[in-house]
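pasting for ref
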Amino acid sequence: MRKLYMYLTALVMAGSGLTSSAQAPRIPEASSTQTIIQDFGLGKVTITYSRPNVKGRVIFGGINPYGQVWRTGANAATTITFSEKVIIEGHSVPAGTYSLFTIPEKDEWTIVLNKTAKQWGAYSYKEADDFLRFKVKPEYLAEKRETFTIQFRNATTKTMDLHLVWDHTGVTIHLHTDDDSEIMANIDALMSSRQKPYFNAIQYYYENDKDMNKALAWTLEAQKTDPKGPWYKLWEARIRLKMGDKPGAIRAAQEGIDLSKASKDDEYQRLNQAVLDQAQR
């Protein structure tokens, strides 16, 4: 009986412990985690970081002392992943995942890409594992930012800015991608195939100031495959206008408007009208 009593008592205690554990409250992290992803060139840039709040504290020169390595957030060190090679402030960086550390100073910040991607804070940070260091100037922000924020700004197919903001301080890091030769080779190969990607090829040539004569020839060929579509008329009008052929641009844009009306495509009617208005100035 004594053994049975002890066995039943152990079961009750174990059950009580399980119940207590199951009923533990869920508590949110004081510094929430965020992952941001931005298409860039032929690849993507992904950043995962935790977002501390000011909470009335002195930030830089206070809880983040000047001259000391900062995890650029809270909790685990911030990570930045490039799916393709990029150029950061003039420095070539291969594809991969890095820890993003910073060393704040009053008038200058050191930005660090460290090869040890997963680490907690900066406690085990080793300068010997740095892949890259460079310096940037911080800026004073009149508007206070309570929550530390990393964001992408001014994103184009070739350039964009990585912006760090907290309290009254902002730091901008310039990124550049140089994959034009690869893109041009892809276009040449695909335009030699049976299924020609006219739209993408025309758009890239136009937006990157490539051979406009070739781009125009492609728009005229594309119109033969899709004579009722107003989109190729739009690109013909844009290209002719860029080439200085205003009469040709006006004619193509008007034809695009007529095709848009016939297909009840309000968007392309508006886009062709915008080119027509510009050409008529």
